[in-house]
Amino acid sequence: MLKPKKEITRKEIQRDPFLETIDQTQSHLQDNKSVYMKIGTGLIIFLLAFNVITNKRSKLSMDANGALGQALVALDSGDLSNAQFQFETVMSKYDGTKSAEIAGYHLGKLYYDSGNSKDAKIYLNQYLKDQPVDIMVSSTALMLANISENNGNLQEAISFLDKGIKKSIDTHTQRILTLEKAKFILSQGDDEQTKALVKGILSEKNVTPVQKQVAEELLGKISG
């Protein structure tokens, strides 16, 4: 036999904490309806603005990539003055993009190759700080080190190589820079540190024949 359902009284409903919470929530929402409408509207506006900014940035990046590509074509064809102008345009027009940073590297290299070490150092040093593309870190560090060496500042040259070693992502590049660093240290007469660097490289796996040859030549200069 089914038991008769218990009749829920109004008094019991009022004491039910769950129902009280629902009532309070509904009352709060009703009282603050306009506030929540404003918050919701503001959130929608923010999301729309974010999408617009993102789309603009994507277009800017695509345009910058296209401009950089044209500059690289001019560089590859040997039209250096045109390439330089286009790299400068990419840097000024698309400042803040990865393409502008890469253009800075090529400008620095153009100045370096032409013998303008002052301007080359400015652009290359900035590129080493930004490091948008890892593969060009080693050449950047080597050029900066060479500029410092030519200016008679070996400590600064070694410092640039250390930065390059730290920022390089593969052991092959790190070994190239370490060997160059060993050359500078040897020229300062520090045989022990040179020997430690060189032996460290020779103990590694997959050392290329060229790297092995350079390392052994450095050891020969120490023993000689």
The figure for the number of domains is 2
Class per helix and strand makeup:
mainly alpha
**What's the number of helices?**
11
Average residue-wise pLDDT: 78
What fraction, in percent, of the residue positions are helical? Answer: over 70%
Low-pLDDT stretches are 1-19, 47-53
**What would the principal axes of the Cα set say about the shape?**
elongated
The name CATH uses for the topology of the largest domain is Serine Threonine Protein Phosphatase 5, Tetratricopeptide repeat
State the end-to-end CA separation: 111 Å
Give the SSE map:
Elements: H1 10-15, H2 17-31, H3 33-76, H4 80-93, H5 98-114, H6 117-130, H7 137-150, H8 154-167, H9 171-187, H10 191-202, H11 209-223
What does this structure look like?
With 224 residues, the protein is mainly alpha-helical. It folds into two domains: 41-132, Tetratricopeptide repeat domain (Serine Threonine Protein Phosphatase 5, Tetratricopeptide repeat), CATH 1.25.40; 133-224, Alpha Horseshoe (Serine Threonine Protein Phosphatase 5, Tetratricopeptide repeat). It is built from eleven helices and no strands. The protein is elongated. The relative contact order is 0.05.
Précis, in short:
This protein is mostly helical and 224 residues long. It has eleven helices and no strands. 81% of the residues lie in helices and 0% in strands.
